[in-house]
Each structure stands twice: as structure tokens, then as C-alpha cells.
Design brief:
By secondary structure, the chain is α+β, with helices and mostly antiparallel strands. The chain has helices at 3-10, 13-55, 235-241, 246-250, 265-277; strands at 60-67, 74-75, 81-90, 103-112, 115-116, 121-123, 126-132, 141-151, 154-164, 175-176, 178-179, 204-206, 212-214, 219-221, 229-231, 254-261, 282-293, 299-302, 304-314, 327-331, 337-341, 349-356, 358-363.
Length: 364
């Protein structure tokens, strides 16, 4: 018997084909395993890229509400003029405020139960306009706007608004302000402990002798941790200190303040650390932001002034009669703490000559 005949006798063709199939299956399994391993390596990288893309999602701060005579807590009545405030500014990836230039505006207004009195104007990060409540309102005052915000060459648009609860025509007026970004609000009485001070007059400060000083520079004053904040330096001098020329002022550029209770945890922690380093205790955190605004709506943040601007803060209610010596700490652009000492002997107020503006800590 020849070798070929013996080979086929020992290993018939069917057996050989089965061996070839098994070898092909092994090769296929190896390829599948390699593909699975490659996919397993790619999925984490894909997920990391997806997370990175999600982290870069465009976002901005949005807040809308009504005020009456500068106060967020109010009782609305027929015939009132309410100010609609829309607060917008871009956010960075870490959630902090974007520090570059940006544009905001309103393209369309929708009113219900009120009528627009003035056009929207920009004040820092705010767009504001007045709306009148009819003498016989039949529904709540509602304002919705199509707004736009743009920075770094890109622009975005959304709709937002607020509702002021006015009650029905024949019923009593009720507490107003139900903002879309904060659904809880309430009416607040103006009663206070001795010495009597109007807590809601946020751009006014009561001084000794029952007198009141009103800020020479306007803006939006929302801080409640102190009993009012006011600039007492003449407005023209503040403008010059902020770097405005006579031509700027003649062309309609002005200075505005945005004053509010500080919320940034990192900033508050830095101020607290600076206070404790000098043996002081923090009584309140207040942001006093200064802006220059042109007639065309271009806004520039003013962090330092060439000459001091006198600012008055009402001492927090709980500390009026405590007999403390107050001062104010601010973190400058260089990250160093700057301390402004109280320049008056009035127990109701803290007066400083400030040339740095931003986040303040009232300390004692």
C-alpha cells in the first residue's frame, strides 16, 4: 500500500476537514478575543472623553425677580411701579463667574397684568426695566423675556421671567415676588430693635441723630447682612476715581454699584483666614462691585480706584450695641488682604476710605 493510500486509510478526508474547521474556529476565537480586549480598552477612553465634553457644557448664571423701590421683599398694590431684574453672567467650568467681557440683551418682552414703562438698561450683570401695575389689575403681574448672552464669539438665547403676586381686583394685596429661580418668598415687616433702622433701605444708612445718608452712586443694592451700604463721595469724584474722563462722562458713561451678600465659599474662606490671622472675627460678608457702563451698554468691572471712595456700612443689627471696633478686609487683585479701618465714631456705622472693591468682610 502506498503512503497516500495509508494516509487516507488512517485519516479519512472527513476527519481532515474537521481538523481544519477546528483550527479556523480557534483563529476566529482569537480574533474575537482581541476585538473584545481592544473594545475594553477603548470604552474607558471614550467615557473619559465624554465626561470631558460634558464638563465643558456651556452654562451661565440666571436669576429673575421683581423689586419695589429697590427691595425684593414687598407688598404689591395697584398703581405700583415694579422693576423687573434679570441677572445674567457666564460661568467657567469650575462654576465660578466668568471674568472676561460678555454681552447680554433682551430681544422680546411678554407682559401680563402690567405694562412696560421704560426700556431695558444694563447695570453690570443685570438687565432692568420698570413695569406699571394697573390701578385695577385682574391678574398677577407677569414678565417673560427672550434674552441672549454671548461671550468668546458665541451667543445663546433662552426665555425667562418672574411673577409678582397681586391678588384679585376686589381682594387685598398680597406679598409680591415669586421669581422663577427662587420659588420661596415672603413679606417682611420693617420693625427692628432699638435703635430703629429701616432694614429694607439697602442703599441708605442711618447715622447718629436719626439722619439717613443715601448712596451718591446708584445701582442694585441687595445686601441684608448689614443695615444698608452707601457711597458718600460725590458721584463725579467717584467717576474720576474709577478712571472716567470728562469725555466719557459727557458721552453718557456712568458708575454703578452691585452690592449683595457674598455667596462664594472660596472667597469667604480666604476672607475668614485673613481675619483670623489678624485676630479678628467676621461679622458679615458683603460684595461691593463697581462697574462703569457706557451709553451703548459696554460694561467694565472696576476693581481699584485711583483715589479713595468713602463707603458707609450699617452695623449688623445684632452688633449695634456690642461696643466693637470694626474694620473691613478685602482681598485685592494680587491675592493679598487689604484692611480698611473705621473712620467714624458712630456706633451705627462703619465708614471706610476704599480704593479696592470686590468681596468684603466686616470684622471686629
Amino acid at each position: 500500500m502506498c503512503y497516500a493510500s495509508l494516509r487516507y486509510a488512517l485519516k479519512p478526508p472527513d476527519f481532515e476537514r474537521s481538523m481544519i474547521i477546528k483550527m479556523n474556529i480557534k483563529r476566529l476565537n482569537k480574533k474575537i478575543l482581541a476585538a473584545v480586549l481592544a473594545l475594553a480598552l477603548c470604552i474607558p477612553m471614550f467615557w473619559m472623553n465624554l465626561v470631558e465634553v460634558q464638563a465643558k457644557t456651556v452654562d451661565w448664571h440666571y436669576e429673575a425677580y421683581f423689586t419695589k423701590d429697590g427691595h425684593k421683599d414687598f407688598t404689591a398694590q395697584p398703581g405700583d411701579v415694579l422693576t423687573f431684574c434679570l441677572n445674567l453672567y457666564p460661568l467657567k467650568e469650575d462654576g465660578s463667574a466668568y471674568e472676561g467681557e460678555y454681552e447680554i440683551g433682551v430681544s422680546k418682552v411678554y407682559c401680563g397684568g402690567c405694562e412696560q414703562v421704560t426700556d431695558f438698561t444694563r447695570e453690570g450683570s443685570y438687565l432692568v426695566a420698570d413695569f406699571a401695575v394697573p390701578e385695577k389689575p385682574t391678574m398677577n403681574a407677569k414678565v417673560y423675556v427672550d434674552y441672549k448672552i454671548g461671550w468668546e464669539g458665541k451667543s445663546y438665547g433662552r426665555r425667562g421671567g418672574a411673577i409678582a403676586s397681586l391678588g384679585v381686583e376686589s381682594g387685598p394685596s398680597v406679598s409680591g415676588n415669586v421669581p422663577s429661580s427662587d420659588s420661596s418668598s415672603s413679606s417682611k415687616s420693617s420693625s427692628s430693635s432699638t435703635p430703629e433702622v429701616n432694614e429694607n433701605a439697602m442703599d441708605k444708612v442711618q447715622v447718629a441723630g436719626g439722619k439717613t445718608v443715601t448712596s451718591t452712586v446708584g445701582g442694585i443694592f441687595l445686601a441684608k447682612s448689614v443695615r444698608g451700604v452707601a457711597s458718600i463721595t460725590p458721584k463725579a469724584d467717584v467717576a474720576k476715581a474709577a478712571g472716567l474722563s470728562d469725555e466719557d462722562i459727557a458721552n453718557g458713561t456712568n458708575i454703578r454699584f452691585y452690592v449683595y451678600d457674598s455667596q462664594n465659599k472660596n472667597t469667604k474662606a480666604a476672607l475668614k483666614e485673613a481675619a483670623e490671622a489678624s485676630g479678628k472675627t467676621v461679622a458679615a460678608y458683603v460684595d461691593v462691585d463697581m462697574y462703569s457702563i457706557t451709553s451703548r451698554g459696554v460694561v467694565n468691572y472696576v476693581s481699584n480706584t485711583s483715589t479713595p471712595v468713602s463707603m458707609v456700612f450699617g452695623v449688623p443689627a445684632s452688633l449695634v450695641n456690642a461696643g466693637h471696633n470694626f474694620s473691613v478686609i478685602c482681598i485685592g487683585k494680587d491675592g493679598k488682604a487689604v484692611t480698611f479701618e473705621d473712620m467714624d465714631a458712630d456706633k451705627l456705622t462703619i465708614t471706610i476710605n476704599a480704593n479696592v472693591f470686590g468681596a468684603y468682610a466686616i470684622v471686629y
